[in-house]
Amino acid sequence: SWSQLLFTILILYNEQTSFRPVISFYPNWNQVFLGESVTLSCNVAPIAQGNLGYSWYRDGERIPGDQQRLVIQAARVTDSGHYQCQAGASERSDSVTLDVKSNRLILQAPPAVHEGDSLSLRCHSRPGYDSRNPVFYKDNKAIGFPVSGSELQIGRADVTASGTYRCQKVIRFNSGRNYLILNTDEKYISVSGKTQLKPMLHSVKNLPPKPGKLFIVCENQIMEKHKIGLFRSGL
């Protein structure tokens, strides 16, 4: 009968089931100037949230911080590095890179871009500089997208947005009597495919066995793992 084919989907979490957090940036750039602030967040699936203790690592070494957010108020060169976080007894997150620059001009971009994301780039000059006329380049060709201020709004990203980007600005000094044309370093942006879910059979500790019950884990290959239990009667 149809009732025997009914699937009930339950979101399950067991404290002994491993999960991997994902680090995000706010603002969503991983390259900043000396003295600027940036916040890193250790994100876990809703099923894994609770009174978790957080740990932060830079270049593999534990650093101060036990909250979900790591706030860097005035970035220094020594804050540059590869960051990971851990939530409770979770696995460590994949590493993300923070790059603190002393250049006069940098191209800011999201640390990771997936198909469907809203993509914007920023041609950012050091505070105090009189900078004008930003021009963005992709694969050494000027881009014709509209520029709002110093930001280039590309919109919804697809794989065709992958490429090597840089930007250029005019920096004026001596009350505008002199100027320099500066270019940023090139940055390759790769737009990855949409999130793929791969269901895998998985046993979970401390769940009482129930005849005719099937437990499947769907692992999100881009974001953290989501534990999804599928129970079907009549198996």
Automatic annotation (TrEMBL):
Extract the SUPFAM superfamilies matched here. Immunoglobulin (SSF48726)
Q: Give all residue intervals belonging to the Ig-like domain.
A: 21-97
Q: Which InterPro entries match?
A: Ig-like_dom (IPR007110), Ig-like_dom_sf (IPR036179), Ig-like_fold (IPR013783), Ig_Fc_receptor (IPR050488), Ig_sub (IPR003599), Ig_sub2 (IPR003598)
What UniProt keywords are attached to this protein's entry?
A: Disulfide bond, Signal
Q: Which domain of life is it from?
A: Eukaryota
Name the UniProt record assigns to this protein: Ig-like domain-containing protein
Q: Which organism is it from?
A: Xenopus tropicalis (Western clawed frog)
